[in-house]
């Protein structure tokens, strides 16, 4: 029997109430699940903010060499410490851990300055020393003891005494290290850089300047590529073996090649070891090409 879907249905009040109760229950259950989902999302977000970064995401940065008090190495030591902190932040969660790490990389006599501060910091009944307020505070106090009190003047003396005697890479690296402490302008740095170069490099720069009148090495920004290129080219040129002009001597077809010393034909040692081959007479002009035997001299 077919049921008319458009016809009104007869339903009791008890059945209607049952259906409405079920709908209310399902709505309450859906709301509770939505609230639980929101709580879980918030928990995950908070956990992700406080979770330490994955070890694979941090580069492996080498430890700085132990600092033993040489003031020339202080800037590099502190720079390498800062590089370590920035590259591996999961290992240094507070300023005190950075200071302890820097202290562990100190050798004698520098560690003797650090040891009393460490003893005070470990004493629970005493406040931390002011040098341990932050790493930068520690670095400032450490520099006051082991740094150069007149770094600019010392760097000026060092850069004027610097000469290009070894590789171009070493000369450029040392020049760049010193220039950061000197308040010169660019032309002054270019002039000093040029003065310290090898004479052979200066010759190459002079030849380039002669071909390009509008270019001046001393008044232009430092062109380090030019120095690298010339230095590498001259090294490769020196490493090439020089060819002996005698190596150019070859034998003509079906003709013997005379390999004996340049002696007079009358000299006893100039006689050929083979009876059927006579040594050619030496020409007047001593040219390597004249050592090639001719048909007439065979």
Give an overview in words.
With 298 residues, the protein is mainly alpha-helical. Among the domains are: 71-146, no CATH class; 151-238, no CATH class. The chain contains 10 helices and no strands. α6 (151-161) packs antiparallel against α7. The N and C termini lie far apart (131 Å). Mean pLDDT is 77; it is low at 248-252 and 274-298.
By DSSP (H or I, 4+ residues per run), the number of helices equals 10
From the spread of the alpha carbons, the general shape counts as elongated
Q: Span between N and C termini?
A: 131 Å
Uncertain ranges = 248-252, 274-298
- Let me know the number of strands: 0
Derived from helix and strand composition plus strand pairing, the structural class reads: mainly alpha
Helix percent band: 40-55%
Instruction: Please tell me how large the radius of gyration is.
Output: 43 Å
Query: Percent of residues in beta strands?
Result: under 5%
What's the SSE pattern? HHHHHHHHHH
Mean pLDDT: 77
Major sheet attributes: none
In short:
With 298 residues, the protein is an all-alpha fold. Among the domains are: 71-146, no CATH class; 151-238, no CATH class.
What keyword list fits this structure?
10 helices; 298 residues; disordered C terminus; mainly alpha
Task: List the SSEs and their pairings.
Elements (H helix, E strand, L loop, with lengths): L12 H38 L23 H14 L7 H10 L5 H13 L12 H12 L4 H11 L6 H12 L6 H10 L3 H13 L12 H16 L59
Helix pairs in contact: 6-7
């Amino acid at each position: 029997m077919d049921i008319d879907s458009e016809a009104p249905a007869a339903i009791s009040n008890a059945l209607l109430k049952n259906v409405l109760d079920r709908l209310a229950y399902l709505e309450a259950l859906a709301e509770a699940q939505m609230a639980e989902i929101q709580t879980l999302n918030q928990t995950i977000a908070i956990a992700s903010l406080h979770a330490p970064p994955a070890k694979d995401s941090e580069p492996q940065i080498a430890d700085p060499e132990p600092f033993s008090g040489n003031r020339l190495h202080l800037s590099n030591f502190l720079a390498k410490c800062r590089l370590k902190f920035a590259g591996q932040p999961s290992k240094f969660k507070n300023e005190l851990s950075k200071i302890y790490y820097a202290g562990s990389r100190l050798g004698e006599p520098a560690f003797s300055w650090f040891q009393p501060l460490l003893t005070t910091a470990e004493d629970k009944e005493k406040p931390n020393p002011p040098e341990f307020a932050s790493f930068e505070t520690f670095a400032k106090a450490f520099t006051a003891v082991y740094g150069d009190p007149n770094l600019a003047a010392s760097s000026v003396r060092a850069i004027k005494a610097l000469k290009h005697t070894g590789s171009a890479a070493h000369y450029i690296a040392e020049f760049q290290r010193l220039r950061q402490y000197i308040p010169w302008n660019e032309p002054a740095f270019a002039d000093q850089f040029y003065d310290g170069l090898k004479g052979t490099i200066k010759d190459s720069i002079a030849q380039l300047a002669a071909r390009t009148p509008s270019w001046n090495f001393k008044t232009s920004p430092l062109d380090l590529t030019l120095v690298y290129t010339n230095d590498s080219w001259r090294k490769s040129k020196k490493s090439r073996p020089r060819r002996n002009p005698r190596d150019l001597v070859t034998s003509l077809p079906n003709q013997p090649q005379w390999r004996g010393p340049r002696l007079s034909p009358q000299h006893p040692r100039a006689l050929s070891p083979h009876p059927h081959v006579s040594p050619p007479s030496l020409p007047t002009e001593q040219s390597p090409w004249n050592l090639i035997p001719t048909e007439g001299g065979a």
